[in-house]
Specification:
By secondary structure, the protein is of the alpha/beta class. It is 41% helix and 22% strand. The chain folds into four domains: 112 residues, 2-Layer Sandwich (Beta-Lactamase), CATH 3.30.450.20; 68 residues; 156 residues, Heat Shock Protein 90 (2-Layer Sandwich), CATH 3.30.565; 120 residues, 3-Layer(aba) Sandwich (Rossmann fold), CATH 3.40.50. α5 packs antiparallel against α6 and α8 packs antiparallel against α9. The N and C termini lie far apart (104 Å).
Length: 548
Amino acid sequence: MKSSPQRQIEDSRLFSALFDELGEAVLISDNTGKIIRANRAAPKILGMSEMNLTSFRHDDPIWQAVYEDGTPVPTAELPGVRALREARPISGIEIGILRPDGTLIWILESAAPIMGEDGEVSGVIITFPDVTAIVKQRQELRELSAQFQIERDRANKANRLKSAFLATMSHEIRTPMTAILGFSDVLSSELANRVSEQHYTFLRSINISGKRLLNLLNDILDMSKIESGRIDLAEVELDVDAEIDAAVTPLTWIARQKSLDVQVEHYPKTLVIEGDRHRFGQVLTNIISNAIKFTRNGSITVRTALVTENGSPIVTVAIQDTGIGISPDFIPFLFEEFRQEHTGNTKEFGGTGLGLAISRKLVSLMNGTIQVESEQGKGTRVTLRFPLVAVGRKPVVANAPKSAETSIAQPAPNSEPEETTDETHVLVVEDNEETQRLLGAYLRGHYRVTSASNAKSAIAAIRKEVPDIILMDVNLPGRDGLAITRDIRAGTRCPKVPIIALTAFAMTGDRQRCLEAGCNEYLPKPATRREVLDIVARVLAASKTPAA
């Protein structure tokens, strides 16, 4: 049944109203592609009047379109043209259209053919919402992502440069420090009771000052490792009082120079916590050294206790001094890197302001806390808190892996080894003459020593006589010590000779690199006489022990 003329008119009006009020643009063309009708949104989006718009065809050259990557869209590929040509719908093509005023807008264009009663294409209808805001937001996100990538690459490069600089600085400072500390140790040992007290004090001062410089370097390297998350801590049981005694003993000499009394008050029973022995000792040394430094007269007391906090047993280590105290205004900044209360050209106290910052981070990594209470003019108390592991028993010694940050050459509990020269042959491969002479001074009297300064002379020395053990400097001119080690391990002359890596580098991963290259052990510089003799003796003993 056909509609009445009135109904057709009403339908036409309803269609026109809906057509004009649609939020997205709509164009209708005939079968030649000429635009015959546009709703209100179309000319607004395209930036032209409806009259102008209906004078164009879909393939008119005025339509300058581009894809998002900037590639021009050929006229034949415009959705309206394709829908007419292919007699099928073309959906969701995102393109940029250049308006007559030169601005670029983005649309999401779809086109569908209008089929006549005879089955032929009689026209096409095109719809396109304005998606300029979405496209621009996406482009901005891409630009931000690209910028972020650039900044991240720049930061990574800066971090690599910083690591390289720190490694180089470590090497360049540790190499001369090896000679300064080593020879002052040798002289102090050999000249004890043979020179005046004044001259002996001079030697001790050289050694102590050298160790202070080394501690400053270690602080800088430690902060870098902690910041980058590349610090490894061992988890072993520690006797708190024994560790305190070990940390206090070398500091009492410094305290005596200032006429200060250092007292240690132990808990009646053994207190056991879990942590890294080297790092726990470092924290204690930092805090006790600060107490000595900022105390002009009086005493420093180290006191251990067992308390209960929130229902859990906690071991506390309190370091109390009678020093100058800390301003209440500065206490909130006490653990910030490089922050010092006493600064300026005339400051009385030295230091980098890193010791407490490092200590707090290390304590936190060992599941502990650190608290400071102070009163100006009366003194400061620093309290460390750690979860209790056991009380009244000795720590359980486990075969835990050594901390990568800890020197593997632990001093022997005995005093200096006896000087009994045997025929054990030690080859020292070291390019620095001072370090070469120092290692010779350490080893002679215990072993027969020969030296080489580079890869060529090292190989020549091995061909002449196979050594019983090799001390191999890593940073050699030309081919480095690790390359020489790999050659020795791959060869037939002495593939199983024990090799101890010596390096002035002290960055995370150095020890592992040396072991992977085939070294038996790793010894960072500067190393003391006892450390060198101890590690050589241990490695030699291990090499002679039959494998299980």
